[in-house]
Amino acid sequence: MLLITICVGSSCSLRGSDELASDLFRLIEKEKLEGLIDIVGAFCMDACSKGVSVRVGDQEFSGIRPEEAETFFYKEVIPRVKTKLTPRTTDESPAVLSCRKEGPT
Ligand code: FES
């Protein structure tokens, strides 16, 4: 599950955090990614000066404007979802511990 946290503090609300959240929900539905991405609100994320503050996974963004929702979604959200969905390669197989057959002493 990829978590998107959108600041709903007063400054970000005035800059359109509700509209941004609605657009991101719409895009999640459009791409049929319900259940893979969750959106939650947070209070001030200490980056009020430009636009809405958003965290996608561990990455923080500030200054996101609602009219940038679609560009932001395809540039910053979709790649992170795909990374989470990528199956492991054989190189990433769990290590196999060596076994030793115990014989009579
Ligand atoms: S109100 Fe959103 S970062 Fe401060």
Provide keyphrases for this structure.
single chain; 105 residues; alpha+beta; Glutaredoxin; 4-stranded mixed beta sheet; 3 helices; 4 strands; globular; binds FE2/S2 (inorganic) cluster
Distance between the termini: 52 Å
List bound small molecules: FE2/S2 (inorganic) cluster
CATH architecture term:
3-Layer(aba) Sandwich
Return Rg in Å: 20 Å
Mean pLDDT, to the nearest integer, reads: 85
Number of domains: 1
Task: Characterize the quaternary organization of these chains.
Answer: single chain
**If helices are DSSP runs of H or I spanning 4 or more residues, what is the number of helices?**
3
The ordered string of helix (H) and strand (E) elements is: EHHEEEH
Q: How would you characterize the largest beta sheet?
A: 4 strands, mixed
CATH-defined fold name: Glutaredoxin
- Could you estimate the helical fraction of the residues in percent? 25-40%
Protein described:
This protein is α+β, with helices and mostly antiparallel strands. It has one domain (2-89): Glutaredoxin, CATH 3.40.30. The protein contains 3 helices and 4 strands, in the order βααβββα. The protein has helices at 10-14, 17-30, 69-85; strands spanning 2-7, 37-42, 52-56, 59-64. A 4-stranded mixed β-sheet has the order 2-1-3-4. A hairpin with a 2-residue loop joins β3 (52-56) and β4. The model is unreliable at 92-100 (pLDDT under 50). The structure holds FE2/S2 (inorganic) cluster. FE2/S2 (inorganic) cluster binds next to α1. FE2/S2 (inorganic) cluster is lined by residues 7, 9-12, 44-48, 53.
